[in-house]
Specification:
This protein is 46% helix and 12% strand. By secondary structure, it is of the alpha/beta class. The protein has one domain (3-18, 30-326): NAD(P)-binding Rossmann-like Domain (Rossmann fold), CATH 3.40.50. Strands 1-8-7-6-5-2-3-4 form an eight-stranded parallel β-sheet, sandwiched between helices. Helix 2 packs across helix 9 (270-280) and helix 6 (189-207) crosses helix 11 (320-326). It starts with a helix and ends in a 5-residue tail after the last helix.
Length: 331
């Protein structure tokens, strides 16, 4: 970093040493009043947080490029019908995040629609295939990482060159409480979300000098179509599994693909609200991690310990400006 950049980062950090310098709760963020003049590309927009978010950001005035795979499909038609009836600036492009060519082609369509690289990239697409880790065959393992980790990387690589060049941009990676707290029996979901946490932190340090913000969203469980899809994928895995990999795990194996879904409370709109609030904050003041849950934040102490250790370990060396900027600390 240059001396000028270093001073700018330090001033920005000092100016925002507030409660959000820790991993903030979504309720601590200022409520977004509008997202006018913001262009947003979101992956996994066919259901859940992606579908709800598309409508929410557009209703706040943003141009939203909703991406999903397997077009044409009813969910895309529904979004466009609502957009037409409410005069919302929503466009749908096809992106299968597991495929290089699809990610590149869909991203370029988004660029054309926005007249440049979108202001915000929301990496949201994700899956879970549950059961004992031993039972996760290589097809399931590759699909989990290809969607939850490599898919994020594919879109990051499309967005970052121009964001760095223009010295503005916001990358939002949807992680999970399970990116911090290990839950046995949910296959590679925890490992992939742990990877997103590490990827996001690495990225945040590296792009701080370019004024590109990175925000990690850590949702708890919410009632969305994520869960029925999980059961379909898990049932397919179980049906092709060798009993040798299932035997001995009791209910962890027996419940695979059974359709048993947690009885979850909470409004799924909590997550799009939290994302919109983070986007609406001024650049250089946005929180790095945001916890969103209707039932507590078991990862809070881990987030804080992580922050403190990185400030201690990296905050006095050659990366001190970046780590202090990311955690908004003037220590």
């Amino acid at each position: 970093m240059t001396d000028t950049t270093r001073r700018n980062l330090m001033l920005a950090g000092a100016a925002t040493t507030i409660a959000l310098s820790l991993s903030g709760q979504a309720s601590a963020l200022p409520k977004a009043k509008n997202l006018e003049n913001q262009s947003i590309l979101i992956t996994g927009a066919s259901s859940g947080f992606g579908y709800l978010g598309t409508l929410h950001y557009a209703r706040l005035g943003a141009k939203v490029i909703a991406s999903m795979r397997n077009l044409p499909r009813a969910e895309a038609d529904d979004l466009l019908q609502i957009a037409n009836s409410e005069n919302l600036d929503i466009h749908v492009v096809e992106i299968d995040v597991t495929k290089d060519e699809s990610a590149a082609k869909g991203f370029q369509e988004a660029v054309q629609l926005c007249g440049g690289v979108p202001d915000v990239l929301i990496n949201n697409a994700g899956i879970a295939i549950v059961g004992p880790l031993e039972a996760q065959d290589m097809d399931a393992t590759k699909l989990a990482y290809d969607t939850n980790v490599f898919g994020y990387q594919r879109l990051l690589r499309q967005a970052l060159p121009e964001m760095r060049k223009r010295k503005s941009g916001h990358i939002i990676n949807v992680s999970s409480q399970s990116g911090r707290v290990i839950w046995p029996g949910i296959g590679h979901y925890c490992p992939t979300k742990f990877a997103i946490e590490a990827m996001s932190e690495t990225l945040a340090y590296e792009v701080a000098q370019f004024n590109v913000d990175v925000t990690v969203i850590q949702p708890g469980g919410y009632p969305t179509k994520f869960w029925p899809t999980r059961e379909i994928l898990t049932a397919a895995l179980k049906n092709r599994s060798d009993e040798a990999h299932l035997d001995g795990y009791g209910n962890m194996s027996a419940d695979m693909g059974s359709g048993k879904i947690p009885n979850l409370n909470g409004d799924p709109m909590d997550v799009p609200n939290a994302i919109a609030n983070a986007i609406a904050m001024p650049a250089k003041s946005r929180p790095f991690r945001v916890m969103v849950s209707s039932s507590g934040h078991p990862q809070a102490s881990i987030n804080e310990a992580n922050r403190n250790q990185h400030l201690k370990f990296l905050g006095r060396g050659p990366f001190k400006d970046a780590v202090q900027y990311v955690y908004r600390s003037n220590v």
